[in-house]
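Quick one, probably user error.
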């Protein structure tokens, strides 16, 4: 993740679970910032996945949200995780970051458990496992 942020020249990146918790951060982002960003990224990813299902367009692959000064590039890592990078640059740079993110997602997805984390948590509640 650190290498991806450095190679792409992005401000920071976050790997997170669709349960809303960040798992890994890189770049110029502290713990509190990572938690705040993850809350946003989780909702954007779940919204994109839901829209793909609702419209029968398939699953989201790469999501780009452009701002006045920069962009968010986001991709799912299987069904239970996502990755977001924050870019502050030109359209050309944005294209390169989106490409690098897609390559990274393909390489990283097999390394992460792909079970549904939410249903796993529900199963623990049913068995009354203490937190």
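Nope, works fine. Designed sequence:
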């Amino acid at each position: 993740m650190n290498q991806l942020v450095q190679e792409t020249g992005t401000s920071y990146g976050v790997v997170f679970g669709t349960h809303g918790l960040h798992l890994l951060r890189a770049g110029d982002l502290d713990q509190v910032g990572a938690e705040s960003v993850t809350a946003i990224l989780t909702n954007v990813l779940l919204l994109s996945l839901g829209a793909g299902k609702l419209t029968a367009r398939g699953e989201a692959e790469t999501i780009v949200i452009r701002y006045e000064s920069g962009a968010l590039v986001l991709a799912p890592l299987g069904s239970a995780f996502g990755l977001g990078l924050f870019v502050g640059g030109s359209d050309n740079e944005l294209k390169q970051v989106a490409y690098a993110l897609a390559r990274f997602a393909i390489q990283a997805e097999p390394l992460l458990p792909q079970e549904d984390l939410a249903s796993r948590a529900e199963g623990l509640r049913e068995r009354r496992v203490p937190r």
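Residues 62 and 75 are 5 Å apart (CA to CA).
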